[in-house]
Amino acid sequence: MQLHNFNSGPSILPQEVLEKAAAAIHNFNNTGLSILEIGHRTSHFVEVVKEAQTIVKRLMDIGDDYEVLFLQGGATMQFMQVPMNLLDENGLAAICDNGVWGNKAVKEASLFGPVKVVSDTADKKHTYINKALDIPSNATYLHITTNNTVEGTQWHSYPQTSALLVGDMSSDIFCRPTNFKAFDLMYAGAQKNMGAAGVTMVVVKKEILGKTNRKIPAILDYRKHIEAGSLLNTPPVFSIYVSLLTLRWIEAQGGLAAMEKLNLAKSNLLYNTIDSLSAFHCPIAKEDRSIMNAVFFLTDASKEEAFLALCKTEGMIGVKGYRTVGGIRVSMYNALPYSSVEAFCNLMKSFAEKI
Amino acid sequence: MQLHNFNSGPSILPQEVLEKAAAAIHNFNNTGLSILEIGHRTSHFVEVVKEAQTIVKRLMDIGDDYEVLFLQGGATMQFMQVPMNLLDENGLAAICDNGVWGNKAVKEASLFGPVKVVSDTADKKHTYINKALDIPSNATYLHITTNNTVEGTQWHSYPQTSALLVGDMSSDIFCRPTNFKAFDLMYAGAQKNMGAAGVTMVVVKKEILGKTNRKIPAILDYRKHIEAGSLLNTPPVFSIYVSLLTLRWIEAQGGLAAMEKLNLAKSNLLYNTIDSLSAFHCPIAKEDRSIMNAVFFLTDASKEEAFLALCKTEGMIGVKGYRTVGGIRVSMYNALPYSSVEAFCNLMKSFAEKI
Question: Cα torsion at B102, B154, B148, B142 (round to 10°)?
Fold first, then answer.
């Protein structure tokens, strides 16, 4: 049976990336050694890191005022590492709480200094993005989650602020060309649009660091990682290599413009199908709908179980909504082919006809 | 050419582990999906974590008073995470500084509370283990590096203390049966004896946690990871799977007794060869020599370059000493076959005859 992988992350990767990753486990770069057995300070691996950094800068169209780091711990680590590096008692973190992940960012930041929640969309179950933010003039930084994986919303243009702008881009990094330069610090767990689990990309402007008096442990100090060329200690070698393969794949497909074209085609098809069928409904404000994660429901909730069972028998993987939200969630990351969304939409139509 | 991989870490893995890891990238557990594409909360992956935890407990012969976690960030993260969880201003960390890694543990711990260095072997360039420790009676914990990867020394029996005992076992975990129960907290980066880079095992007694008043960020709080069954956030899925494969391999070989037999055979052969050849010398105190990493020198230092060049042409990988130590370092982790040490010893003999 043909499988269609709509997992929310870790998620589908390009077939080509999987093949090259598996080949490197047997023999990496003709070294005769596995990628799992090489030293991280060998020239072979240092080149992997450098090439990945170069591609990231090219895709983001950013200059040498930014540094690209490949760290560990995911967004959950960044929720505390960002304030540990940027915030102290004299500062103020302005944070948008637009769902599960933004909420965690609020909780962790509050351990390091004052926090103001400048947007809380819980009033409408996080089904929209509040763009009218009241950001205090003394805010050190504004933190946004550019795409809310769980709730299915996405910022389609970024808020203006005189504060530093920090973006958790874990679930929509490189989904389209965008103004990355609007941000002073961006981070993303790789396991959605740029590789496998186990590595977290941080892109940061050097000039914003070192402004607090806090003593920061080496492993959590962005400056230490920058000084060490992202090789402060043993990095997650294989995960970084899979990210490089994925970054190369993005460029080979035509870069971010090609990703956007594909992602719009997929998400338009899916949202149009949902809106056209009375059996389904999507509560997310149309202008804020995510092109990565579509969250929607059966109009008759009692039919949800039957629909999910049908999805399972038809090889549609990972379409059950997040446990606190329920319903259906279809994740359409870069590597998901258009044909998978077509197949899913056909299944929705055929299900809708029968009920 | 046959390669012999003496890398200090990331290092050689069993061929069987590499083959199974590559196969899982194509199709994991007959799911039709890659291990890189599966959700970390699927039953398939939850079983991976549970089986790995079970094998670790079996190999260590420890009970349910211990928890086994698979985290990220390596020993460098543990250098700060251990004191963040165990130490505060009312406590005292007693730490053995027997080399590069112990020294880093001292620096990071001092950010969280009082530290006393109870052993500093710099007087003899860290060529021995000081076993006569003066541990203050009010020490919260004693931290030792059970094997000094860079310097080539190893604790062959553990110090007695009324304080909690913490062990950085990154470079000798599971090299032999030992009294793991002597420890209250043990950690190890996987990339030497138990898998690939990208995952760090922490084994901790639950009862020692929660004794400080510090507010700990979620990702750094062992208790949060325990509550979440080591799945607090997206874990390094592939690296954990490679650790499971390696743990299974250790058991299939006959467990820690078999590892010890192999490791003693390899290290005895190598040290005996060094000691028998006047062209080489090992400055490490005999009783403290590591069975994982042998550090030694050419008696005539001017011959070192020629020897390293010969090693290179003969496929002996990773034998150059650490940059601050120099000389030769041969790492003989569990997966290194006896035949590789034989080949290396033959090369030493043939080199010694010609000079």
Answer: -20
